[in-house]
Amino acid sequence: MSCGDEAALGVFYERHATLLFSIAIKVVGDIQEAEEVLQDGLRTIWERAAVYNPSLGQPLSWAVVITRHKAIDRLRAWKRRSDGMERLAQEALTDLPADPSGAASSHPCEGAVTRLHGALATLPRDQTAAIELAFFNGMSQTEVATHLGIPLGTVKARIRRGMITLRDALEDQL
């Protein structure tokens, strides 16, 4: 692998993927997230194979450490994202007026919200669904793909096309 031999990567994968996957799933607790961790870990192992130092330990031990670190990083990112969504929700609740009657007409963002909803209504339903899940429900693109049962690339394309349309529709109003 250190010389760029893809067949060696294949052999390494066949021998050790089960162990590395089990470590990832133990840390992140989710099959799909563990698959992502395994993929990230193997990419890192492949990219860093040339700088691996055998005097520091066995290749498998090195791979286990990399996979474990990737899993912990993904768990921390999920926690930050979750904490951020919680904080935003709390801030949104504290910004609501005390008197719910007439709240829509008195809130300073009413016009922007109305324009956003109007622009979202012009998008095809598949783009709207992907955008709503990603931006309003706080899902990652991978989570959106799983939720909708479509490939990740399709989710990315739908969100991108939808965001470009929204930008064009709202550009003169912002």
Automatic annotation (TrEMBL):
This is DNA-directed RNA polymerase sigma-70 factor. The keyword Transcription applies. One of its GO terms (cellular component) is DNA-directed RNA polymerase complex. Keywords: DNA-directed RNA polymerase, Sigma factor, Transcription, Transcription regulation. The lineage of its organism: Bacteria, Pseudomonadati, Verrucomicrobiota, Verrucomicrobiia, Verrucomicrobiales. Pfam families: Sigma70_r2, Sigma70_r4_2. One of its GO terms (molecular function) is DNA binding. Residues 12-80 form the RNA polymerase sigma-70 region domain. Gene3D superfamilies: 1.10.1740.10, Winged helix-like DNA-binding domain superfamily/Winged helix DNA-binding domain. Signal peptide: none annotated. Belongs to the sigma-70 factor family. ECF subfamily. CDD domains: Sigma70_r4. InterPro entries: RNA_pol_sigma-70-like, RNA_pol_sigma-70_dom, RNA_pol_sigma70_r2, RNA_pol_sigma70_r4_t2, RNA_pol_sigma_r2, RNA_pol_sigma_r3/r4-like, WH-like_DNA-bd_sf. Residues 115-164 form the RNA polymerase sigma factor 70 region 4 type domain. GO terms for biological process: DNA-templated transcription initiation.
